[in-house]
């Protein structure tokens, strides 16, 4: 067995210039190539290093996390390992360039590695919060409606009035329909309905007193978006009819006309009572009166015979004037008895008692708002190790700007990529957007700060 010496013309580390010129993803780089983590060393190289008595020393260097070693080529690495194991005389091999890594650099590198891993699996979804409703980016995290199956909310800095932007990320390795955020009412404080595959997943409803954004109607005027009626069920509007809000994208569309905003509700007038009239009195009218928003989440929905979402339970989170939230969980199957007798509820009115029953259910089954990911946070998808590309780059602290990672550079990109988008660099290498500076909506271009990603690999000459 032999290991070939690096081919002529391979750039030496000393020629790399400042220590911020290349992305280093492991503790060892050979020429311009960071090498993979130890557990992913090819079998033939492991065998060769073991036969040469060098493997233990190689593992020691490659697993180091406070010093980065830069070698001219593969032979330089082999000779240095022989020097460290006493196989050749001192002074016969030049030392590699070493870069010490401090705690702040480790932290910064780890955050960037987490972002690269996240964007290996998730990319911005095909539908996003429309630009016509900028106020949706101000919805508190605790009141965000669900992002939909195989989707995830993210939030990152953006040059806007609010300074933050929500991005809807979609899992690249699962096929699912786009989740479409539908916005209505006041663009600066809009209502937002999340629709996936024709189903209303849930919504954030914000009352408005501005008549420019309302098309109030009466019960006799509603057309229920052309949906069929079904016995013992109710075609539930997202909000009371005098709060029939107009779409932020289409002035001819509103809550009443858009079937994507409806929920198949149990009928409050039937034997056990349901949630239709209760919702109007206890949720909608209260929200309009106090001007406070509420979030509704339709759990375990299926498409009903009406052609809309029929959830078995519905969670409500109601913002309080005190700044807190009131959570309720309601049964939508018409099997819970919401028409309790006086002997059970005492002097409490029926619908007020129904609200109390919903509060008790919420205590037993607390509502968990969807997580919102921010740049730099750890990414711990349950199946992350099974996705192609997740391990490249591997988890590593050596991606900070002031060690060996590339400094972000400004690049003009087509379209409106979000922070975390994978893009092509001018030199053909891959990069990740780390900041959106501004967007030209007329030209459909964005000026972004992009950091290059160098893939890990062994030199092609290294082997038997």
Question: What would you note in describing this structure?
Answer:
Residues 1-25 have low confidence and may be disordered. The chain is an alpha+beta fold. The chain is built from 7 helices and 22 strands. 40% of the residues are buried.
Quickly describe the structure:
The chain has 464 residues and is of the alpha+beta class. The chain has 7 helices and 22 strands.
Defining traits:
7 helices; alpha+beta; six-stranded antiparallel beta sheet; 464 residues
Oligomerization: single chain
Main sheet: strands, sense, barrel: 6 strands, antiparallel
Share of helix, binned: 10-25%
Report strand %: 15-25%
- Which class best fits the helix and strand makeup? alpha+beta
Spatial order of the strands forming the largest sheet: 8-9-10-13-16-17
- Please tell me how large the radius of gyration is: 29 Å
Give the terminus-to-terminus CA distance.
Answer: 5 Å
The dominant shape is elongated
Write down the overall mean pLDDT: 86
> How many DSSP-defined strands?
22
Order of helices and strands: EEHHEHEHEEEEEEEEHEEEEEHHEEEEE
- Report low-confidence residues grouped into runs of 5 or more: 1-25
Helix count, per DSSP? 7
How does the SSE layout of this entry go?
Layout: E1 28-30, E2 33-34, H1 43-51, H2 55-62, E3 67-71, H3 74-84, E4 97-100, H4 103-121, E5 122-124, E6 151-157, E7 164-171, E8 179-184, E9 191-196, E10 199-205, E11 233-236, E12 263-266, H5 276-290, E13 294-299, E14 302-303, E15 309-310, E16 313-319, E17 325-331, H6 342-345, H7 350-364, E18 372-373, E19 409-414, E20 422-424, E21 430-440, E22 445-453
Parallel strand pairs: 1-3, 6-18
Antiparallel strand pairs: 1-2, 3-4, 5-7, 6-7, 8-9, 9-10, 10-13, 11-12, 13-16, 14-15, 16-17, 19-22, 20-21, 21-22
């Amino acid at each position: 067995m032999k290991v070939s010496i690096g081919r002529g013309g391979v750039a030496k580390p000393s020629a790399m210039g400042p220590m911020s010129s290349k992305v280093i993803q492991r503790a060892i780089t050979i020429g311009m190539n960071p090498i993979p983590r130890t557990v992913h060393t090819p079998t033939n190289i492991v065998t060769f290093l073991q036969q040469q008595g060098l493997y233990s020393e190689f593992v020691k260097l490659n697993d180091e996390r406070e010093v980065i070693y830069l070698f001219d080529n593969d032979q330089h690495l082999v000779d240095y390992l022989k020097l460290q194991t006493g196989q050749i005389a001192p002074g016969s091999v030049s030392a590699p360039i070493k870069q010490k890594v401090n705690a702040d650099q480790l932290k910064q590198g780890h955050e960037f590695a987490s972002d690269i891993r996240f964007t290996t699996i998730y990319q911005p979804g095909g539908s996003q919060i429309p630009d016509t409703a900028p106020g949706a980016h101000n919805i508190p995290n605790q009141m965000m409606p669900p992002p939909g199956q195989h989707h995830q909310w993210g939030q990152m800095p953006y040059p806007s009035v609010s300074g933050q932007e929500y991005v809807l990320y979609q899992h690249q390795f699962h096929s699912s329909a786009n989740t479409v955020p539908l916005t209505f009412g006041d663009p600066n404080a809009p209502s937002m309905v999340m629709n996936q595959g024709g189903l209303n997943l849930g919504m954030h409803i914000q009352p408005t007193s501005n008549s420019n954004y309302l098309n109030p109607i009466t019960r006799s005027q509603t057309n229920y978006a052309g949906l069929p009626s079904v016995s013992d069920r109710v075609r539930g509007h997202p909000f009371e009819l005098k709060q029939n809000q107009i779409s932020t994208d289409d002035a001819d569309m509103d809550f009443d006309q858009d079937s994507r905003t409806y929920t198949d509700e149990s009928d409050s007038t039937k034997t056990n009572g349901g949630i239709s009239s209760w919702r109007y009195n206890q949720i909608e009218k209260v929200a309009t009166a106090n001007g406070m928003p509420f979030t509704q989440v339709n759990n375990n929905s299926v498409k009903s015979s009406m052609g809309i979402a029929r959830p078995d339970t519905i969670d409500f989170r109601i913002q309080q004037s005190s700044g807190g939230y009131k959570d309720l969980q309601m049964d939508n199957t018409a099997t819970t008895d919401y028409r309790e007798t006086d002997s059970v509820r005492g002097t409490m009115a029926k619908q007020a008692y129904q609200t109390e029953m919903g509060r008790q259910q919420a205590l037993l089954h607390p509502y968990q708002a969807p997580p919102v990911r921010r740049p730099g946070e750890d990414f711990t998808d349950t199946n992350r190790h099974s996705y192609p590309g997740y391990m490249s780059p591997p988890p590593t602290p050596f991606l900070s700007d002031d060690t060996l990672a590339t400094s972000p550079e400004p690049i003009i990109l087509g379209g409106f990529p979000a922070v975390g988008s994978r893009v092509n660099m001018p030199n053909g290498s891959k990069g990740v957007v780390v900041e959106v500076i501004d967007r030209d909506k007329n030209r459909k271009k964005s000026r972004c700060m992009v950091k290059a990603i160098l893939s890990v690999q062994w030199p092609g000459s290294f082997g038997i």
